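Quick illustration, no need to memorize.
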Amino acid sequence: MDFRGRTALVTGAGGGIGSAAALRFAAGGANVYLVDVDGARLEQVADAVSRAGAGVGFRVADVTLAKEVEDYVAGAVETFGSIDAFFNNAGIEGPVAPLAEYPEDGFDRVIAVNLKGVFLGLRHVLPVMLDQGRGAIVNTGSLASARGLPLTGAYNAAKHAVLGLTRTAAAEVGSRGVRVNAVLPGMIDTRMLRSLAHSLNDGDVDGGVAAMAGSAPAGRPGTPEEVAAVVCFLASDAASYVNGVGWPVDGGALGTMGNSHSATSTQGARTP
């Protein structure tokens, strides 16, 4: 996957999957523009990308605010002249609770970051790519884009909607040189998964991660690097005829599990 002479824009770049993707783009020769709400973490990732030999720029931004999204898109174009690949990745897990008890403010926050943030990214990056006549976007969905998972109603709803936005965008711009796909991570060993494991398994993080990973035939959690490899494939010319899909990176979970076997259930978990 050769990204030499191209620019990759990554939101949520301070997180496990975002930072892994940024480094993977850098390894392919891309200039990388990084966006995250956590400035300290963003600087660490920018330093790692720079040490990998790539051109790097970054901006602290809240993806729920249209002006800040507009500014990070403009920053990427001003710094490197184009946006050839966009990993629209920023997201949060939100509260763990049954719908009958789900806090309204928590619901609003998850929808704002995980859905509105993706929409705003598309809204402001697509015009740049359409003007260029080329580009590839990868949105971050989830195993929760394709299954009803208990106790994560806002997250589940947002990730279903991300897949809908992906398909809509692909249908609208596919004939104009721009592709839009989604990656659907399963149980990936990140801060987010460990936070969920802590909530669902009485504080036993390792036991919770192992139990959730058991929903996949692979029998283990995935790594951010394994997701990053698929992200970069979808953003590359190697995937030139792939458009409008949600690509699972889940160790086989979606292909083998049903709604009766929850990927968020753990053996010792209590319902909040």
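Residues 128 and 223 are 32 Å apart (CA to CA).
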